[in-house]
Request: fold
Amino acid sequence: MIELKAIEYLIGEKPFYLGIIKAKDLVENFKVDSWSITNPQGYQRNLSQNRSKKFSDYLSKCKGIFHQTVLINIRDKKNIEYKNSNSTLKIDDPIYLVDGQHRISGLKILLESQPSYGDMPVPILVLKGFNREQEAREFLIVNKTQKGVRTDLADRLLSHVISEMDKELLEVIGIREPKKLTELIVDVCDKLNKTKGTAWYKRITLPNQKTKKNETIKQRSMTESLKYLAKDSYIQSNYKSAKKLTDLLILYWAAVKELCPKACGDTAKDYVLLKPAGPFILHRLLPFVAIQGGPNLTKTKIKNILAKIEEMNDDAWHKKGDLGEGSNQKFFNARFEDFKGQLG
Reply:
């Protein structure tokens, strides 16, 4: 049990505690709930040792002060007790860091080499009884209004961790897409990445993960390309659910794979078809292909429609080929318009 001086204040009916804790007490008891494949409901970013080391150096070499409040939460209300008579707050672990993990990790590095800093005062704001989703919400608000969270991780939080967030609040923190759209495209992205036998099986690099040998595109590029598709009126009318849209994409890319087997195969990294160029061009094209193919769309119909495009072959999609020449949206837009024109 840790005891410290603090003041209690209420926002509505929720109590908050502002106080000062000894560095060693916080360092020895904190936890960080990071997002990972094995912890998909987590919300924190991966720790950057470089950022933490810089903060440690700032405190020791620059005689810096810990001037910014660390946001922590005690999930179990039974582990927090406040006595108004003497302004004493008692908290027990686990103490979850909602905001400030790099500063506290930097402090931990410092204490390992210089224990004398253990009594350094650290300002904290204590949340009482927030659950994981509420922590994630506060983390997202703090970090989207200060230093940005990686967009791919923000998409994950909105689609899998935070169940609701007001439209006005999303706009304030710079997220302009409807939450349902984010949920849809992240869900579709995951389904493509997990479906064996498809062109996209294990090709997408997820947040907080290092790119693996077989991966060709980051989650953010894939979801951004899927937005064009999900916003199309024809797609919304005929392939509204994540399952229907995923099934359509699997069918579509199966046809693409038959036309460009090398670009979708083991040598995919030598080509740009499964890199951002392919999805940004071909996902915009898909509604036009689907309309031409009609309601009973098949792989053969899709293949025959795409075969009208001169560049739908391995050579054109090679990184040294015609479609490997550009990597920006202006280039992708121009090639999409060209492909659309070739469909007639």
Summary: The mean pLDDT is 92. The CA atoms of residues 39 and 312 lie 40 Å apart.
